[in-house]
């Protein structure tokens, strides 16, 4: 037998056991430049993401926990896959084909991020694709789970490429008409998780419009221009510069942008996040119509993450690509309905660069 020299790119280790006795695994993917992505089968969660800075120095840019047990009780959705429906559904209720469905309410009177036991609190089946740097998680959400109609078979595939991209592809099928919007809820801090806040990160979002929301964070149904508001990130701006103006209590961003989607339906650039200190840059590409920008306003220092670091307000920010919040109740928003025979399919890419590299790329494009 010839000796195989294939470099193992995925390593699997036990991560713990749930109170129901289900074993949970942790998969670590490593690419050619040493970037690492760790994924837990509990919640199909990104627990760790090592990314090089401008000097090639790695730091973990994803907030999370060192072990399984805090994930079991945490309610802040660190790194997880959110489903069946990302963000809020007003009054935990929607009507589809003349029938009203009542959902589990877990955010005042609203249903948030799938309800009391969303996809973030499930153990997903795992399939490791050896040599392909991909891990695929799948689950069945039974008809009526958290109030949602239809047996839903969902999967999410994470790929780490040698061009420093984390690609996340979601799929779902149903046997009754239902609503679906899956996203990833990683809190990024490009300085490194637990090393201060994200207020000096510079954000640029390819959106001219957003969906304003009321004080319960339910969209009013209007679609307004970002121009002249704290939501105007068409030119790069520091996240912390207009926090008060952004509103909210505690103040900060928790808003859905209306992205400029590409006509091809392929993922296109939605946002660029730059951390000037380390030189780390993250670009977000998606095929989704919306993106929730959440600046970690509800973090309050009570959650103690990896390396015993407490996550203070704005310790991380989320860029959650999604259907619009409350879409099932808003006829003017893009539909979030999935019918039998259809496949829900969507991809989001988080691509990491560093400042000098980003400049080179720009020059390259200009010379092309
Ligand atoms: C989302 C919401 C926020 C908050 C977080 C979880 O991003 O939009 O309002 O609920 O999840 O804490």
Entry keywords:
single chain; 368 residues; mainly beta; Beta-galactosidase, Chain A, domain 5; nine-stranded antiparallel sheet; five-stranded antiparallel sheet; 3 helices; 27 strands; 37% strand; disordered N terminus; binds alpha-D-galactopyranose
Number of helices: 3
CATH fold node name = Beta-galactosidase, Chain A, domain 5
Helix/strand/pairing class, anyone?
A: mainly beta
- Which architecture name does CATH use? Distorted Sandwich
Fraction of residues in β-strands: 35-45%
Ends distance: 47 Å
Bound molecules: alpha-D-galactopyranose
Q: Considering DSSP H and I runs of 4 or more, what fraction of the residues is helical? A: under 10%
- Order of strands, main sheet, comes to 11-12-13-14-27-23-22-17-20
Return residue spans where pLDDT drops below 50 for at least 5 consecutive residues: 1-6
Shape: globular
Largest sheet: 9 strands, antiparallel
Order of helices and strands: EEEEEHEEEEEEEEEEEEEEEHEEEEEEEH
Mean pLDDT across residues: 94
Kindly provide the radius of gyration, computed on alpha-carbon positions and rounded to a whole number of angstroms. Answer: 20 Å
* CATH secondary-structure class: Mainly Beta
Number of separate structural domains:
1
| Total strand segments | 27
